[in-house]
Amino acid sequence: MTSEVITPAPVPAPGRADRVRELATELRGLRGALIPILHAVQEDLGYVDQTDIPVIADVLNLAVAEVHGVVTFYKDFRREPAGRTTVRICQAEACRSVGAEALAEHAKRRTGVGFGETTYDGRVTVDEVFCLGNCALGPAVQVGDKLHGRVTPARLDAILGEAR
Ligand code: FES
């Protein structure tokens, strides 16, 4: 006899489903509404929770699997809360030509997390971004609203240190 582990369905945080439904309903008239709705949910609630997916699917009259597929396909959508500080490292061409890839590798070694992930203590999320409009001063890094240019590994260590 095989034993099957039954995982309970995730329960949304109080009020979350109502807010997601409200956002989805507001935007459902847009052409290709799913992506703007997912962005709105992420902006308003910080990330797209697993429990948001059936709510959005219901409002748009789509299959849950379809919404889930879009959320998991696009790296833009965070599926868990971000850390207290998000460090975004530009990976677009101009920054790559002056060491952004090596900087990202350095960040990974220092934090133990890759793009889109959060350190075990929940303090820092590291994300990639494609152009911060600071191309002449690459590699560029953004922490909160603050933009840093010509970021070396040593400067990144200082930035990460402050973030923690
Ligand atoms: S390419 Fe990095 S800021 Fe524009």
Your description of this structure?
The chain has 2 domains: 16-73, no CATH class; 85-163, 3-Layer(aba) Sandwich (Glutaredoxin), CATH 3.40.30.10. The chain contains 7 helices and 5 strands, in the order ααααβααββββα. It has helices at 16-27, 34-45, 52-60, 64-73, 93-96, 100-111, 153-163, and strands spanning 85-90, 117-118, 124-129, 141-143, 146-148. A 5-stranded mixed beta sheet has the order 2-3-1-4-5, covered by helices on one side. The radius of gyration is 19 Å and the shape is elongated. The mean pLDDT is 91. The structure holds FE2/S2 (inorganic) cluster. FE2/S2 (inorganic) cluster (FES) is lined by residues 90, 92-95, 131-135, 138, 140.
Observed structural traits:
binds FE2/S2 (inorganic) cluster, elongated, 5-stranded mixed sheet, 164 residues, alpha+beta, 7 helices, Glutaredoxin, 2 domains
Topology (SSEs and partners):
Layout: H1 16-27, H2 34-45, H3 52-60, H4 64-73, E1 85-90, H5 93-96, H6 100-111, E2 117-118, E3 124-129, E4 141-143, E5 146-148, H7 153-163
Parallel strand pairs: 1-3
Antiparallel strand pairs: 1-4, 2-3, 4-5
Helix pairs in contact: 1-2, 1-3, 3-4, 6-7
FE2/S2 (inorganic) cluster (FES) binds at residues 90, 92-95, 131-135, 138, 140.
Class computed from helices, strands and strand pairing: alpha+beta
CATH architecture label of the largest domain? 3-Layer(aba) Sandwich
- Which consecutive residue ranges, at least 5 long each, have pLDDT under 50? none
How many individual β-strands?
5
CA radius of gyration? 19 Å
Identify the CATH homologous superfamily of the largest domain. Answer: Glutaredoxin
Portion in helices? 40-55%
The succession of helices and strands, N to C, reads HHHHEHHEEEEH
Average pLDDT taken over every residue? 91
> CATH top level of the largest domain?
Alpha Beta
- Order of strands, widest sheet: 2-3-1-4-5
* Bound molecule kinds, no repeats: FE2/S2 (inorganic) cluster
Kindly report how far apart the N and C termini lie. Answer: 50 Å
Largest sheet: 5 strands, mixed
- Indicate the overall shape: elongated
Question: In DSSP terms, counting alpha (H) and pi (I) runs of 4 or more, how many helices?
Answer: 7
Into which percentage range does the β-strand content fall?
5-15%
Number of domains: 2
Which fold does the CATH topology of the largest domain refer to? Glutaredoxin
